[in-house]
Amino acid sequence: MKFVYLEFLYALFAIAIPIVIHLFNFRKFKKIYFSNVQFLKEVTQETQSKSKLKHLLVLISRILAISFLVFAFAQPYIPTSSGITSPKNKVVGIYVDNSFSMESTGNLGALLDEAKLNAAEVINNYNASDKFLVYTNVFASGEYRLLSQEQAIEKIEQIEIVPQTKNLSAIYSRATDGINNAEIANKYFYLFSDFQKTISDFNDLEQDSTINWLLIPITGNQTDNLYIDSCWFESPTHLFNQQEELKAIVVNKGEKDVENIPVKLFINEQLITPTSVSVKANDKTTITFNYQNKQQGIQQGKIELRDHPVVTDDAFHFSYQIASQITVLEIHDKQAAESKAIPALYQTDSLFNFISGAIGQLDYSLIKTANLIVLNELKELNSGLVQTLKSFVENGGSLLVFPAEEMNLESYQLLTNAFQINPYLTNDTSSLKVRDINYEHPIFNNVFEKKEAEKLNLPLVKNHYALADFNTIFRSDVLTLNNGTPFLSDFKINKGHVYLCASSLNKTATNFANHALFVPVLYNIAFLSQPTYPNYFIIGENNVININTNVKDNVFHLKNDNMEIIPKIKSEQNTTSIFFGNEITTAGNYLLSNETIEMGIAFNYNRKESDLACLTESELTTQLTQYGLNANIVNANEVSFKSALNEIESGKKYWKICVILALIFLATEIALIKLWK
Which of 197, 112, 54 is nearest to 676 (CA)? Predict the structure, then answer.
């Protein structure tokens, strides 16, 4: 126990006054003579004993009355683990959770309104000289500015629901930085939230022991929710008239099974294919939409269901683009190239813009405009071409290499060294056969209905170059020979790909160019060379799109029917990064465009807010204990929230009890004197 005003305890010396009076009671006794002394002695002895007991009880009552009166003025209290009673100024950080989950209702109405009301009461509980910092999920730059009581309350009143979601560790880290920057010794941080389990990452939280941390759970009544969690395509490429297979996950966060809930798919605002879904309680299921691409260009889609009362996660937006043309550049050796398989494949399809040129007459500016470059039987590679190809691949291009039967290995090592990939070794003329197909590689998406390689008559190889045998984490073998060496390998280099084939396409080396695998493999390599962008982004995250061209002088616009913004861009040598920050607050499909580029962008709300399961007060206590965190939990539903706050800050005070006890002992003294005859 401690005392607010310790100097008042000197008044305890006043206890000596009743003690002195008791010890030096100089009252004179009158002598009376009796004939029968024996009986008188018995009466006298009994009367003196009762008198001593009465005086002793009066003395004790006076001592206790004085003691508790002194204690009342000294104001005793038992401090909490974080409570510090100090007359000095304080800095108080207040976080109000304004994510979607705070739209739920509790016993006192909307959770956000309850949190704002309690936060304002916290501010009013402090002195006018104290300073305040108010934080929300927006993480605005102005949150580091110290506020007065009036300014803090005004800012609290302006807080509204936003789509951004932040983990507890990120909130705490940001708040402690601002509180410590204030350079005020007495520091407090109040956190008002429903403490959803999806954002309560106490395990990642690093606590600052100099800050008194208080958690105020705002509990809601709604926990059930049905929502669309995510979606994806089975094929990474999209073509006109192609049959698409779109999958989506539907989650049921409820205690009851749901059956036959209608789910609709819209493409460019047209209803494509309705279906229904049934999901067991606290489970999820995957639904599949099959449809055909009937339009070219940008495709803006939406999957939709109906669920109440939470509706912000009932629609999931996505976007993709059907390429109008893919540019393929073939570089060949005019004197050595014999294979005509490459031109025969790409020239016959209007989807491809096919360009072919000899290495000695190559216009290097064509490389920047290509999606796929094919090196077809080049005997030698020069350093200038290698450096240009390196830049091309690193910025998202795809390079396919078919070596010449008689090539300069040292010049090819310039290429493999530039990409730090497995180099070609000596020529192997043994007769081999392709044994394994990597069905999991994107090249073979939608190529085979069943993975039955033993039924396929795979290509023969009579003359090839083995690759050096060392592990490369970004290498994936597409086709493998029966001696275990790769026939076609894929290397992921930054944003692009390098495909190395072990042999040329000449008939004397292999029959691959005449095999049924040749067309789907080279078609899909070309399809995969298109610039790819995410089908959707999550609002509130650090969303960036990288475009493989420098558009420094052009302004981008991001817009839909309801808004239009100019996003921030950063241009480098051969790429442009476009940043989407907190300006996007509404889920939906948007159009990103400038003078030369146009693409569809989809934004969705964070699905962390869809799981309404929250930590109870006992679970919060368990989390704090488990991770060694020191914080006080205040129940916002208590009758006197202000009293609870005072007790947390200053400890449990006992001066009122002391006053009552002092009065009781004074009354006891009076009763002993007046009533005990």
Answer: 54
Q: What are phi and psi of 387, to 5 degrees?
A: -65, -35
From 569, 612, 585, 437, select the one nearest 516 (Cα to Cα).
437
Range from 418-422, 434-438, 486-490, 653-657 carrying the lowest mean pLDDT: 653-657
What are the tokens at 391? 């830049």
Is residue 215 classed as helix, strand or coil in its secondary structure?
strand
DSSP designation for 348 = T
Bridge partner list, 105: 110
In Å, what is the CA distance from 9 to each residue of 4, 74, 79, 87, 260?
Answer: 11, 6, 18, 20, 75
Positions of E strands within 404-448? 424-428, 432-437
- The DSSP 8-state label assigned to residue 423 in this structure reads P
Cα–Cα distance, 84 to 86 (Å, whole number): 6
Going from the C-alpha of 552 to that of each of 367, 369, 577, 578, 600, the distances in angstroms are: 20, 18, 10, 11, 20
Strand segments, DSSP code E, in 162-242 are: 186-193, 211-217, 225-233
208-250 residue pLDDT tens: 989 989 999 998 887 889 999 999 998 888 888 888 999 999 9
DSSP letters of 478-492?
Answer: EEEETTS-EEEEEEE
Under DSSP, the state recorded for 377 is S
Per residue, what are the HEC states of 586-601?
Answer: CCEEEEEECCCCEEEE
